[in-house]
Amino acid sequence: MSARGRLPLFALCALTGLATFAAPAAADTLDGDPQLGYVPVEELSYEAIIRPGKDYEAELALRVALRNASTVEQDAVETLVLPRGSELVALAINAGGDWREAEDSSLVGGDVEVGGVEQGRRDPGSIWVRPLESDDPGDLPAVELVAFGLAPRATVQVELRLRVYPTLRGDRWQLELPRRNAEVPNLVDQRRVLVQGLGEGESFWVDDTSSAGTPYMVTRSEDAVAVSWPARAAKLAQLDGSFETSPDKDGRGGRVRLVLRLGPSKAISPDHVVLVVDGSLSGASSLAKDSGRVFAQLLDQLPESTTFDALAFDREARALLEPSRVEGGAAPRVDDAQARSALGAALTALRPGQGTDLRAAMRLVGEHLSERKAKRPLVLVVTDGMLPPSVDADVVDAGLRDALGGAARPELLFVIDDPLLNARGLPAEHPVAQLAAGLGARISLETVANLGPAQTGELLAAPRVLGELDLGLPKQVVLDDALPTGLVAGDFVVLEGRYEGKAPTRVKVRGRLGRSKISASFRALRRAGEPHALVATSREGDAERAREEGLVLPDWYTPSMRRLATQNLAQAGRVGWQAVGQLDGDIILRQLRSRVLPRARACYNKALTRNQVLAGQVELAMEVGKGEVMMAGVAEAELNYGDDALVTCLEEAAWALDVPAGHLDTQVYQVRYPLDFEPPEGGRPPSTGERSDPMLERLLDSAEVLADYQNHLDE
C-alpha cells in the first residue's frame, strides 16, 4: 500500500464509510492469440481427482482436456486457481493415448509486465506449467499453463498433481475447491469430482450431498464446493505438522515450509447442558427462538439422565427457567416435557436488549454450576459474535472461575451466528476467536435458523481454538508472511519463508489451549523445493531440449492479458462486491450530544444538590457495534469530592447512546467521551461540557479496509 493511501486512524472518523470487497471470483482464464479475434482452444472437460494420502496430506489431480478447434497449430495460456495451501508436485500430458511425465525446467527471465518471463517460441506440442506468486498473503495459490503448437483439431489431456492439506471436520476429511470463471465461454461450465481409493461401500460428499456409491459427481464450475470423504488417518497428535527445507543450488540458503495442524477435538459427552443466549440488539431478531429449537434438537440426542439449564444476557444476565426448577442444585432432565415447554415459551418471549455482558453471563453460569455439582457440564453460548473487546478472556474466565468455587469447570462451546463471518471465515484476530482461544473453548460458525438435527448433533464435536501461537525459529529464518495468532482444531496453516546460510534443523511450536500450554518440536526434512517450471512434450525427442531451453510466454501474450489474469486470481475465493456502510465521527458526535450529554448534565445538576462545589473531569467509554451499545461505563473520574451516585448516574447516561447499524457492518467502534463539570460561581450557572472531541477508534482492521477504498478512489 502506498503512503498516500494509508490514512491515519483519526482521519478515518471523517469518512462516511463505504468499504468494498472483491467482485465475485472469476479466477481461471484461457487466452489465445488476439489477432485471431477469438480463442480457438477450448476446454472439453475439467476433473478434480482426490487421492487420499498419508495422515493429513492428500494428492489433488486437476485434469483438463484442451482441444484446438482450428485447422492450424495454436498456442494457449491458461491460469488455474488452486485450493488454499496447495503445492505443485508434478505434470503429465496425454496427446495420443500414452501419458508422458514432465521434467523440471527453469524460467527465462523477462519483462515484469508479462509475469517476469521472456516472450518467444518453443517446439510444437510442448506444455509447461509454473506456480504463480501471489501479491497478497490472503490470495489463493495458482498456476500458469502454457501450451505451444497444439495440433489442429486434436485434444490433449493435462494433469496437474498437487500436494494438498484437507481439513478435518468430525469424522471426515474436507477439501474446498475454489470457484472457476463462468464468464469465459471456452472454459467448461461443469466440474467432475472424484475421490479415489475409498473402501468398499464408502462414499464421498460434495457439500452435503453423498455420492451414494457412484464413481463421480458433477458440479457447476462457478460454484465453490467442499468435498469430503471418510477419515481413516491414524490418531493425530494434539499439535501436529511437518517442517521441510529446500536448499538453493548454490548452497548459500534456501526455502522453508512449515505445515501445522491442531488435532481433532473429541466429541463432548455432557451430563448437564447450560444454554446461554445472547439477547443483545445486534443479533438476529429470531436468534433466541431459533436457539430454543436447536437446543431442543440437542436435548433429544442426549441420554435421558442429562439435565439442562438456560440463561440469557444483554446488559445483564438472567435465568430463563423458573427458580423452583433449579433451587438447591436441582435441574430438569431432558425428558421433562413441561420444563422444556416452559423454556421454549421463555425464549420466544425474549426481547433483544441493550448491552453484551458475557462476563455477567459466565458469572451466573458459575453460580448455577456451583450448586448443581455436575461432573461433565457443557455451556453452549449462542451469539452473533459481536462481543466487546475490552472484556477479554481473562476477565470472563475470572468471573466464571470465582463463581464456580470447587465445582467442575465446564466445557465451553461458542456457536457464532453471523452471515458475514460464515461467508468469509473467522480470522484468528477476531475478538470472539481470541476469546475462545483464551478460554480454551470450542467454536462453530453456523446459521442457527438452518440447523437440522444432524447438524445440531455435530456441534458436540466442534473444534477448539489454539491461541498465542509462537515459533522458535533460528535467526537466519525469515517468514514470508506474518504468523497467525491462533489455529482452529482440524484446520491447518502453511508457513513459508527463507533461510540464509546453514539450513535449520528443527523448529519448536508453542501455543495455549485455555489455561494449558502445549508445544511440539519438528525435525527438518530436506526435500526438493517447488519447481520453477515443469515441461512435458508430445514427442519424446523434444523433452531434453525443452527442459534445457526453459519456459517462455508466447510473443502474442500482452501485458493487459497478464493484468486481467492477475486481477482475477486475486479475487478468487473472496466475497462478491458488497457495499458496507460504516459509522463516522459526525454520526457518533450527534448522538453523544443529543442523547448522552443532556443526561450527563442532569446527573451533575442533581449531584450539585448534594454538594454545591462538586467539580472535575469524567471520561465515558462505550463500545458500539451493529446498532447497539455492547458495553458502557465511566472509564476515568477525577472529582474533587467522591460521589458514587454521580458515577452510577453517568454510567446510565453512557448506555443511552443510540447509533444506527451500518449495512453489513461488522466493525466494533470504541468511543471515548470526556466531560468537564464546573459548579456555579459568581452568578454563573453550572456547566457540563465536552473537554475535547470524542475519539472514535475502529477495531478489527477497518483502517486497512477504508485505506484500500481510498486508494481505489485515488486511482
The shape, in one word, is: elongated
CATH class of the largest domain: Mainly Beta
Instruction: Return the average pLDDT rounded to an integer.
Output: 83
The order of strands across the largest sheet is: 29-31-21-20-33-32-28-30
Largest sheet at a glance?
A: 8 strands, mixed
Number of helical regions: 14
Radius of gyration: 30 Å
By oligomeric state, this entry counts as single chain
Cα distance spanning the termini = 13 Å
Model description:
This protein is α+β, with helices and mostly antiparallel strands. It has 4 domains: 247 residues, Immunoglobulin-like; 87 residues, Immunoglobulin-like (Sandwich); 191 residues, von Willebrand factor, type A domain (Rossmann fold, 3-Layer(aba) Sandwich), CATH 3.40.50; 125 residues. 21% of the residues lie in helices and 35% in strands. The strands form 8 sheets. The protein has an 8-stranded mixed β-sheet, covered by helices on one side. Strands 7-6-12-4-3-15-18 form a 7-stranded mixed β-sheet, with no helix packed on it.
Short characterization:
By secondary structure, the protein is α+β, with helices and mostly antiparallel strands.
Key attributes of the depicted protein:
715 residues; Immunoglobulin-like; Rossmann fold; 4 domains; seven-stranded mixed beta sheet; disordered N terminus
Topology:
Blueprint: H1 9-12, E1 17-19, E2 29-31, E3 41-52, E4 58-68, E5 74-81, E6 87-94, E7 99-101, E8 103-105, E9 119-120, E10 126-132, E11 142-150, E12 154-164, E13 167-169, E14 172-177, E15 190-195, E16 205-206, E17 209-210, E18 217-220, E19 225-230, E20 239-247, E21 253-262, E22 272-278, H2 287-300, E23 307-313, E24 317-319, H3 323-326, H4 337-349, H5 358-372, E25 377-383, H6 393-404, E26 411-416, H7 419-424, H8 431-439, E27 442-445, H9 453-458, E28 465-472, E29 477-479, E30 487-488, E31 492-500, E32 506-513, E33 516-526, E34 533-537, H10 543-549, E35 553-554, H11 559-571, E36 580-582, H12 585-608, E37 616-625, E38 628-639, H13 644-655, E39 669-678, E40 687-690, E41 695-698, H14 702-714
Parallel strand pairs: 3-15, 9-35, 20-33, 22-23, 22-25, 25-26, 26-27
Antiparallel strand pairs: 1-36, 2-5, 3-4, 4-12, 5-11, 6-7, 6-12, 8-34, 10-11, 10-34, 13-14, 14-19, 15-18, 16-17, 16-19, 20-21, 21-31, 23-24, 28-30, 28-32, 29-31, 32-33, 37-38, 37-39, 39-40, 39-41
